[in-house]
Amino acid sequence: MDSFWNKLPKPFFVLAPMADVTDPAYRRLISETKNPDVMWTEFVSADGLYATREKKKMPDVENPLLRDFQFSESERPVVAQIFSSKPEMIAYASKLAAELGFDGVDLNMGCPDKSIEKQGAGAAMIKTPELAKEIIAAARTSGLPVSVKTRIGYNAVNLEEWLTAILEEKPAALTVHLRTRKEMSKVDAHWELMGNAVEIRNRVSPDTLIIGNGDVQSIEDGKKKIVDSGADGVMLGRAIFGNPWLFAGRASESLSKEERLAALAQLARYFSELRPAKSYHLLKKHFKAFVSGFDGAAELRGKLMETNSYQEFLVLSNSKEYSSV
Ligand SMILES: Cc1cc2nc3c(=O)[nH]c(=O)nc-3n(C[C@H](O)[C@H](O)[C@H](O)COP(=O)(O)O)c2cc1C
């Protein structure tokens, strides 16, 4: 199938989905510096989309799940990430993603969150490979190119069986977070296994693009990991914390105090505009990331952490304290 995936540069660098971090507000800020080669939305529950739209008949403008699904043209290509263990729900949400104009749909088969695993979705999918295959086939009915993001096994590494099952469904792309479900994010990502994943791809589905994920610190670091492993691209997640210039190749240490504070103020503004129903406190993880690495950062961060609304943030960010730390 011809899609944006076939038109990407090689190697390529994509932004990881991170719930309540790479939301529409932060993605807008990133797209004003330098876009990754592909953007992902945060994950959205396919069952939730169905229940709110079809059962509760909630108007789209009031639907918080659809707010998570919004994107701007400047983010393209942009992929909608969904999760469910029910093929009919995946088919429903994938079709909706197509109607909304997304470039692709991505299936989350790696999230270790208990509430998601309880539904048989996220990382729990690793234990039901036959169902995972049905889920991929269901997403394909939308006409969008389908990708999968997963881990290297559940309790133990199980690349051969698990990746083979997914690749037999010929997804357009496969992102491999190089940790098992059991390892969560507590150990270093197993980059030494990426070459094996690439071999399985070459054997089972050579047209599927394969993306390595886990602990990639910068574009330079990603380039090296791609050369060493043979992956087509890498996905960067936590390296974007406090550094919207990541994809422009800038290291966090190179950002000036002024750049950090101006970027944070812009992010807070976008958050208040694009995420009005979300708790202001979600911004606080960004305070930690942006307000660091310069004299007076700890003190200013402390004051920011005490704010309870965007209005309070504005008062502080317009004060001398913010500009003259
Ligand atoms: C705060 C946070 C939220 C995340 N949310 C998602 C998500 O919605 N969907 C997903 O597939 N992975 C999610 N992840 C996992 C990341 O996409 C990525 O696989 C992981 O952070 C490893 O990459 P990194 O070492 O580059 O951060 C999340 C990770 C973090 C830290």
Explained architecture:
The protein has 325 residues and is of the alpha/beta class. It folds into 2 domains: 4-248, TIM Barrel (Alpha-Beta Barrel), CATH 3.20.20.70; 256-323, no CATH class. It contains 14 helices and 8 strands. The chain has helices at residues 24-31, 46-55, 64-68, 87-100, 114-117, 129-140, 159-167, 194-204, 219-229, 257-274, 284-290, 297-305, 310-317, 320-323; strands at 12-15, 39-45, 78-83, 104-109, 146-151, 173-177, 209-213, 233-236. An 8-stranded parallel beta sheet has the order 1-8-7-6-5-4-3-2. α9 links the parallel β7 and β8 (233-236). α4 (87-100) packs parallel to α6 (129-140). It is globular, with a radius of gyration of 20 Å. It starts with 11 loop residues before the first strand and ends with a helix. The model has no long low-confidence stretch (mean pLDDT 96). The structure holds flavin mononucleotide (FMN).
